[in-house]
Amino acid sequence: MTARDFDVAVVGGGHNALVAAGLLQRRGARVALFEARPQLGGFASPLALGEGVEVPLAVDDWGLVRDDLLAELELERHGLAWAPAEALAALRSEATDGDADLVLWREAGRCAASFEQDAPGDGKRLRRFLAEIGGLVGELEELWRRPPELRQLARFVLSPELLRWCGGSLEELLGAAFDGTRARTAFGALALRGSAWGPSAAGTGILLLHQLAGTTAEGLRVARRPRGGAGAFVAALERSAADAGVQMATGAPVRQILVENVAGGSRAVGLRLANGTEVSARCVLSGLDRRTTLLDLVGPARLPVQSVRRLRHLRHHGVRGRAIVPVAKRAGPALATGEPGVPLLVARGLEQLERAADDAKWGRSSARPWLEVSVWPGRAGGTTWTINAQCAPQSGSATTDGAWASGLRAAIEGVGSGAELAPWRDLTPADWERELGAAGGCEHHGDMLLDQLFQLRGTERAAGARTELQGLLLCGSGAHPGGAVTGLPGWHAAELAPEELG
Amino acid sequence: MSARSWDAVVVGGGHNGLVSAAYLARAGLRVQVLERRERVGGATVTEEPYPGFRYSVFSYLVSLLRPEVIHDLDLVRHGLFLVPLESTLNPLPGGDELYREADSNRTFANVARHSRRDAEAYVEYRLRMTQLAQLVHELQATAPPDLVDGAAADEDAAALAALARRYVQAPRDLIFTFLQALTTSAESLLDQWFESAPLKAALATSSIIGSFVSPRSPGSAYVLLHHYMGEIDGVYRAWGWQKGGTGGLAEVIARAARSLGADIRLDAQVQRVLVEDGEVCGVVLEDGEEVRARVVLSSLAPQASLGRFLDPGLLPEELLDRAMRWQSFGCSGKVNLALDRVPRFASRPEPGPHLAGGMSIAPDLDYVERAFEDAKYGGWSRRPFADLVIPSCLDPDMAPPGKHVMSCFVQYAPYALSGADWADQREAFGDAVIDVLEEHMPGLRESILHRQVLVPPDIERIVGIPGGNIFHGELRMSQLFVNRPGARAAAYRTPVPGYYLCGSSTHPGGGISGAPGRLAALRVLRDLDRPAEVSATAATGSGA
Question: What is the average pLDDT value for chain A, to the nearest integer?
Fold first, then answer.
């Protein structure tokens, strides 16, 4: 037995990796974390625009963070405070100002009133929808908080509603739930953020359930931002980890996960960094996606043939592009809510979402992308808009893809009519892949339909946080229960790690 | 006649209604089948629209018929005569082809011409699919449980527990692939084995038959597996032609039912189900005649069974809403051709055994995807997918000597066209089908004597399936098992005591399997405390 440098070495410093590292250190392990970029946070990182202005690099939604699971990290004590919003999102379906927007107010009564005005009867339907979704996400939350197991299948098989929502298409489900086109479009767009599927695809219903975790009959789940700016959440995670004693290195890309042969297979024993440094550890956690972790950092030679085949065929189809647009004056988009913390979805209907997904399928960028617009403070009293647009080109950007550039420009001008737009920059899946190491530029670290969830979010040999190797766990979105800023995969890995530490 | 009293009335004389009737009669019940048309069969009918040329007008092949149904009802004695289809030809552009024959060595060589690796993987694939088909078979042979407060009723618990044990004990790899097959797309599933476009497309065609999906749609792998359930005498993935067409099969089951004592009444359209004091007591026909019975089984789709036939106050609002929103928009058409000579393929100009097999036009997955996209936005496929059989090459009685009939099952022809009407589009769609066929069978157009083009509204009008969906509703997870056709109606019972469902819109769904009809009848017999002696289903899952 050789002395190990650390109990746990963590690959990557995304929010889930920070959660896992912080929890394990607090529970008595010695943890080191290595992030390739100069900035911690991964998809949840801030992007500094100079003069103290920052926007989120990729993700604008913190409403799915499971606060209770992160209580141990004492994030409030480390500077985290949330600014909750009154609404989850608003939808703009035509080129008008805010008056015509449909607002998804948090509180059931207020939301029902806005729906009722949009389509008579939809107020009552919204209440029924909330009760149904509330029940389902309550049931799913139990499964999301447990390692996936085959017996959970019985839950699905015996629950008509769960089967219907997990196996149905958004088009059929939302068509049954609401009369109003805009209500259908708003929930459809919320669900399909970051997904390569269109609303007519069977199985897309579960995307909405993931997005609405925390919803109850009393209202939609919370929408919020960290007070103090886009980077405040990651900064609190970092301070909490540092305070506990986690050793964190940035600008330290990991090149290889070191593996030894042991009885019954292989065991991860440490890391090799790009600069040649080797770090030994009793257990390795990877915040990278499953394919990148196993095929690139471990290598196919260490894996069963069947697993290699499965890993190669996991779908990682990044579709979300992002424009970051400084706006000189405090101008539009005029928000129906009057709250800058509420994202504005811009989509004309489910068909636009469908056609955008078709574009992605054929490897084109959308000539008419649909958008999610968030407004942030900008320089000199102005604002900065972050605009997520789907579907973006798989490779290339606005400088190389003329159709994408003009589609995006038209969309931005449509939202910000009259605003003084400064030169903007755009990010596409190619950037997510290069900058953040996500296979295929997929922010969810793998498609989130049922064939890549639960027991199937993995290979024949290993699902959940587990991998084919002893001593190697996944702690990012590629593990159960999947993507978005939740902290769940990091928490799962921390729960499981003691088994690996022995 | 009307004075007679019945134990059971079965509404609809399609193959499932007939199977139910036969099982009930076999247990000693007095059974009345009521069929709206002048013949039995529903979508399984053979007609002679042009003198001497006979067609299986709608459904065209038999493969899914459950062996236990064949044995329990003694169908062979009543004339079941299946001619197996032994090969599948996929013509490709430029006179190329992919030909899979009964001889597996020759198939290996034919596939290897496209990819040696695929030829090897095909052997492994077929084995794995057979194993999966056995697992699905067990699921399909199990009646969905009646759910009471989210748990299975006692009467169903044992069967479900047995099913769960079987799955827990199955090899982990197999279960993983099984779960994938239940959830993923046909393309994702096939990509794990194969690399060559023609083979993937050829195999993927089973994933779209009768379904408004493409091989890239999530859930299409299950449709593929559903078709893999085809089993003739224990041999999975065997397709057969019933002598005399599928109408011949309906006649066979009708004969079996009659010989067991059931009475089949034609030209009898049911208007509504008769309910007194909250319990079913018969049906009322269009002309007002009442036919009384202790139980009523409807083989019709939920829009009729739960909607039209019942007073809306009798059902929970959710179930009624569900029935009305039932996804059953058909997307499949049928082009039936009368030919004055045998068709010749560019890749195989001489007549041969391939003409007695299946043939399908789907050169690659992109081709099918484009065809699907046309339909997704409300148009018909400019370049359709087609699945062909030449019945006269299998069964000379189907056409005059030297002449032939060709059955072309085509997709996609969506029920509702956006901004257009099928009345104006039907023949244009027919032309598009012929254009595609002509590319692979030069000279076909000139040899056409008659052409019949049927699209989903025709199927709806003639057979009575709302939306014209050949499976009585999409085979997607949201419409399967405890959701087929909806909560509180999936266990063949409905919330109205004495009223049952027995058609393709119940578990396990469409195809000429007889499985829904059988499971429904068994449920009725148990409720009436009339246990039936039937073949065990699990024993047939042993494979070839």
Answer: 93
Q: Among residues B419, B407, B257, B236, which one has the least CA distance to residue B333? A: B407
- Contact list in A for residue B173 (CB cut-off 8 A) is 306, 460
Place of tokens 């019709």: B300
DSSP one-letter code for B95:
G
Find, in chain B, the residue whose alpha carbon is nearest to that of A203: B218
**Are B477 and A313 a contacting pair at CB < 8 A?**
no
**Residue B510 token pair:** 């469409």
Angstroms from A476 CA to nearest CA on chain B: 22
CA angle A102, A106, A110 (to 5 degrees): 65
| Beta strands per DSSP E along B202-304 | 231-232, 235-236, 239-242, 263-265, 270-276, 279-285, 290-298
Please measure the distance between the N-terminal and C-terminal CA atoms of chain A and give it in whole angstroms: 14
The pLDDT of residue A330 is: 55
ipTM of the complex in this document: 0.94
pLDDT (average), residues B404-421: 96
Contact residues, chain B to chain A, C-beta under 8 Å: 145, 147, 150-152, 164, 167-168, 172-173, 175-177, 179-180, 183-185, 188, 191-192, 213, 216-219, 321, 325, 327, 369, 373, 376-377, 476-478, 480-483, 486-487, 490
What's the average model confidence in pLDDT over B216-234?
79
Choose the weakest-confidence range: B140-149, B174-183, B233-242: B233-242
A211 pLDDT above the threshold of 70: yes
CA dist A140 → A86, A163, A318 (Å): 25, 12, 25
What is the percent of chain A where pLDDT is above 90? 79
**CA B189 from centroid of its chain's CA atoms:** 22
Nearest CB partner across the interface for A157, out of B183, B377, B482? B482
Tell me the backbone φ, ψ of residue B272, rounded to 5 degrees.
Answer: -155, 165
The beta strands (E) that lie in B347-477 are given as 358-361, 385-389, 404-411, 448-454
* A475-492 residue pLDDT tens: 999 999 999 999 999 999
pLDDT of B137 above 90: no
B192 interaction partners in chain A (CB closer than 8 Å): 309-310, 313
Identify the three-state secondary structure at position A7: strand
Tell me which residues of chain A, numbers 287 to 326, contact chain B at a CB-CB cutoff of 8 Å: 306, 309-310, 313, 315
Q: Measured between CA atoms, how close is B155 to chain A, in angstroms?
A: 15
In this prediction, residue B540 carries a pLDDT of 38
> How confident is residue A458, by pLDDT bands cut at 50, 70 and 90?
very high
How far is it, in rounded angstroms, from Cα A493 to Cα B138?
36
Tell me how far apart the alpha carbons of residues B188 and A367 are, in angstroms, rounded to a whole number: 27
pLDDT at B149: 76
Q: Which two tokens stand for residue A387?
A: 């605009």
Q: Give pTM, 2 decimals.
A: 0.95
Phi, psi of B331 (to 5 degrees): -135, 10
The 10 Å Cβ neighbour count of residue A334 is 17
CB A463 within 8 A of CB A255: no
| Element housing B323 (H / E) | helix B317-324
- Pairing relationship of beta strands B290-298 and B6-11 according to DSSP bridges: parallel
Locate A493 and state its tokens: 């890995």
Are the beta carbons of B217 and A361 separated by less than 8 Å?
no
Quickly state the pLDDT bin for A3 (edges 50, 70, 90).
low
Amino acid residing at A417: S
Q: Tell me how many residue pairs between chain A and chain B have CB atoms under 8 A apart.
A: 106
The nearest alpha carbon in chain A to B181 belongs to A451
- Cα–Cα distance for residue pair B248/B15, rounded to 1 Å: 11
Residue A172 in contact with partner chain B when CB distance is under 8 A: yes
Q: pLDDT tens across B456-479, in order?
A: 999 999 888 999 998 999 998 899
In this structure, the strands spanning B358-361 and B332-339 are unpaired
